[in-house]
Amino acid sequence: MKGSPSEIWAGAAAVSPFLIPIAVAAMLFGSLAVAAGLVPLAVVVMSATTFAGSAQFAAISVFGEGGSLGATAVASALLNARYVAINIPLAPALPASRWKQVLLAQLAVDESWAIAYRGDGQFSRGRLIGAGLALYSTHVAATGVGVIAGEVLKSIPTVVVSAALVALFTMLLWPLLRERESYLAAGVGALTALVLIPLSPPGVPLIGAALTAFLPWKSQ
Amino acid sequence: MMVLIVGATSITLKAAGPVLMGGRSAAWLQRLGRRMAPAMFAALMVTSSLSGAREIVLDARVGGLAAALLAVWLRANSGVVLLAAISTTLILNLLR
Q1: What is the pLDDT of residues A117-145, one digit of tens each?
Q2: pLDDT per residue over A48-103, tens digit each?
Q3: Chain B residue whose CA is closest to A88
Q4: Closest CA to A32 of A167, A136, A170, A146
Q5: Does residue A107 sit in the same domain as residue A133?
Q6: What is the complex's ipTM, to 2 decimals?
Q7: pTM value surpassing 0.90
Q8: Residues A93 and A200 in one domain
Q9: CB proximity B96 to A under 8 Å
Q10: Which of A80, A148, B62, B66 sits 20 to 30 Å CA-CA off A132?
Q11: Residue A185: which domain range?
Q12: Structural domain tally of chain A?
């Protein structure tokens, strides 16, 4: 039953409503990354290897502010750290071979993870593959289109890049604000970043904000 | 180089859950998963609207942040949120 063609197709069909917004976000990423000063090939390679929209936007945000290589990498790694947690329950649905596990785990992004979820902590391998591959190919192809658009437009003013990133991060945060824990996490993160901006080089305020997620306060 | 490092860490982190933990979870990891994204997105809103060269700068970007928050609060769709933030920032930038 696991990874059967019908499950794969079901996953791809279920994810199809998400493909348009994913394509738009990836195109936006492609053109903003070019505007932030990355070379076109690097932008597409980033989409192909990172495949996590928010971490990619975070990376170009830090890079665009003049953050160092280390600060950029650490900031985006911390944003992706949540995948360690959300991918743990995938393990029973993955093949026994280690390298296949590594490969299939890459297909997990928020949308494919949600579509692969069957309830009761169970995941479908086929649906993960179908949804993940559809999302991945859309993400990489649309990044390429965005890079070309960015190259043609060439001079996107930096304020526009900032404004677009601000809007994106606001849209990413909003649906996460549900209970007290998430409001507190967001508030502490924002405040930490604000305090660290004048005290540290670009990128470090983000790292500081991410580290607040490790603080051992109780959620209730 | 930055791109390769970011890609490699992303691949490692995504694989770490199933491969290393073998399906065993931990309460602190779950908590981290719930808290990391809100903390980071809120911090990214702050840094991309207020940061200058080691100083807090109040410029047109703050208007863009306010417009984005208002649009999201009004449940506008993502295109409207983007347009609101970009147009507000551009207009304020021209007025400056």
Answers
A1: 776 667 888 889 999 999 999 999 999 99
A2: 888 887 788 888 888 888 888 888 888 888 878 777 777 777 777 888 788 888 88
A3: B17
A4: A146
A5: yes
A6: 0.87
A7: no
A8: no
A9: no
A10: A148
A11: 177-220
A12: 2
